[in-house]
Amino acid sequence: MLESESKGHARNWADEKEETKRLRSEILLIRDDKLLVKNFAELFSSEPVSIIVGPSKKSFTIHIDSLRRESTYFKEILSTKTSEDGPFVLDGEEHNIDAFEMFVEYCYFGTYFSSKHDEPHLLLLHARVYALAEKLRCLPLKAIALKKATEWSYGDSTRPEGSLLLSIVANLVEAIRVVYTYTEDSGDGFILHRPIPSDPSGSLEITRDRFRLLLAKLAGMHLNALKNLGEFVKVHHKFADFNTDMLLFIRNAVGKPKVSTSEFRNTLADGQDEAIQLRKNDVSASSRFFNTDTLGVFVGKQAKRFDVHISAVECAEFFKRLMTSAMMESRDKAVDLTSEIDTPDAFERLICPGLKKLAHEKARMICEHAHAGKPDEVLLTIPAAVTLVYENTYDNHNTKLLEPLSNDQQDATNEASNSANGGATATEGPPKGKTDAQTEATNRDSFRVPLSQFASFYISQLRTQEPFNSAHHRFTSFATDLMSLATAGTKLELGSDGQLKL
Description:
By secondary structure, this protein is mostly helical. Helices cover 50% and strands 8% of the residues. The chain has 5 domains: 2-27; 40-153, Potassium Channel Kv1.1, Chain A (2-Layer Sandwich), CATH 3.30.710; 159-249, no CATH class; 261-336, no CATH class; 353-427 and 435-485, no CATH class. A hairpin with a 4-residue loop joins β3 and β4. InterPro entries: BTB/POZ_dom, SKP1/BTB/POZ_sf.
């Protein structure tokens, strides 16, 4: 009997050992997270190593095998390192202490928990974990951080009491800064798995960074409120990748002006009559042009020569100052408009307000006519127009960031002019309480305004054009102007895989 009991105990002990071994390698359910923990005890058999993290130099002691197993970065760095070599230091800005704590949890448990962090701060936490995981080259942790951020975002968007996002704009802005600074995505501005435009076969595809798209989607959803907040406008202006991604998730401006063809023709005729009358008034004085010396003006890369009378070109402040100066061009009666003299530091182009106003009026008429008819031909020229205008005109940068454009607020010269304290409608004459210098600083470039306004009504068409996306990405001032005129995108939806539905 003792022998049978002994055999029974032996079997029970063997079964227990097998069961314990099995449990160590099976999936454990803890809270709502699924943990895949294999050979958990073996993690503690390796040598511990000290890691100093962040500016505050917080110390973490972690078993070296867990680091090597989960992070390709640590696998390479710690391949020959032991505890005798002293602590390993991670002092870069991307090495956030909260995020690194989550990484440590992941090393031991296969996931991370955020119970000690308040609900409003979770999006930023997941963004920091995601950026750190990219730095440490830990793809599974990136996937977990993205999943948690997506679930948080969807839950926030469906919250019965309303979204928290607008109450934590600082966190959203910081999440955008972190992700767009410390992650890379060569396909910014393109939808996930969209065929590469330069590949006619369509066999090559662009794979997008999903966390970037998630942040761009969130910003697009709440655009109507965010575009009036200076801290958001600044981060939008700073990160070209972000504002180009966000272009995918915003909608056309509303309130497109309706101008009939007959109205356009009447306006055009009025402009022609005005020009004819102007020429008649100047005929009597035209003889004075021929009583002055000629000036040789060489224009463009081909250096095409124009011989013009000095009196004729003195309508431009550039030439007036030049010809009264002691510069070589004044002595030689020759100007090369491709030289360094034609820079903002010199005379800010030709400085000819009359010509600028005329060009602005003609462009406005073209846009109005396009609204009334078919805009496709004009839309094809938008990328080139953006490049010309935003590369060669100058606008008060700080004022623009605080005073975004508005389709329904214009001053007496058809230039948008919102106040920094909320966008009060501009009136003729200087605003009360402002000096002349302050009034001048709030003026917007007259051509940028109608160009951005016209493009804002056709965002859904323009964003499918590679040249437009390229111009939008290159000129962040244009991107910010366009964003301030657009309307919010659709609500966030998840696909069958639990990820953001595009």
